[in-house]
Amino acid sequence: MTKPIPHEPMTPAKVEIVIVEDNPNDAELILRVFRKHNLANQVILLKDGAEALDFFFPPAGPGSARAALRVILLDLKLPKIDGIGVLRRLKSDERTRGIPVVVVTSSSEDRDIKDAYDLGVNSYVTKPIKFDEFAKAVADLGLYWLMLNKLPARQ
Amino acid sequence: MNEEKVDVVIVEDDPNDAELIMRVFRKHHMVNQIVLLKDGAEALDFFFGGRASDHPKIVLLDLKLPKVNGIEVLQRLKADERTKDIPVVVLTSSAESQDIRDAYQYGANSYVTKPIRFEEFANAVSELRLYWLLLNQPLEGQASARAGRESGPR
Question: Which of A79, B97, B121, B145 could pair covalently with A152 via S-S, beta carbons 3.0-4.6 A apart?
């Protein structure tokens, strides 16, 4: 069966990659591919939309958790608050609008694609069904957003 | 009809950069799937002169452009219902934080700086092409119109 995903303690302010994914198999595959390409130093896995919003908009402070973020991988079908709801919050708040969000989902419904782009998603990637194609897509995705895409220097 | 659809729009005034970008895309796409526009006014004419329905898979947008600059083109594209869902990648020599910040605030999907060396620049364009034409799932023109109708009047 699936191995538990190791969690390394880290300061939220240093997190570079956020994965919002409730399916443990998909989450493990993404983490494994990122580790293989040395992209996983500062990655955090969140399992539902409510956890995601708590992380991005912590009730306590002015949101230091966002300081180093380079990309958010967001599933759409999530418990509690769905991915579209999380995306809407992220893209309607000036503090988080500039963080690249890539929807990674099994849905290729026109409606979902349209909603995501309308809300300002940076990219929309459908999960390939075959394991090795999914792994390849995750590697390409990680390399694009962490190596090629440019973000402003940290303030 | 299908083979006439434009997949790639390049807005670039520097002829050398434009040639390099076009060369990478021409290897994999038919010439009539690619459009090169040389300033911001040409870009606005293209999108708001009836070709918005083409819904290209990617727009590569330089920032420093004659007539209308890239940020203004970006603003116009992202403010209009007909064009807001088209992925726009800013491809520029500027690595200024202010430009990057502005681009994301106005809804750029991605921001890539032009590497100075020829070979690295070609590689970057290659990676861009792979990502936006093969991995990213765009909203197809037809689906766009269909989904638009389903959502009814705003």
Answer: B97
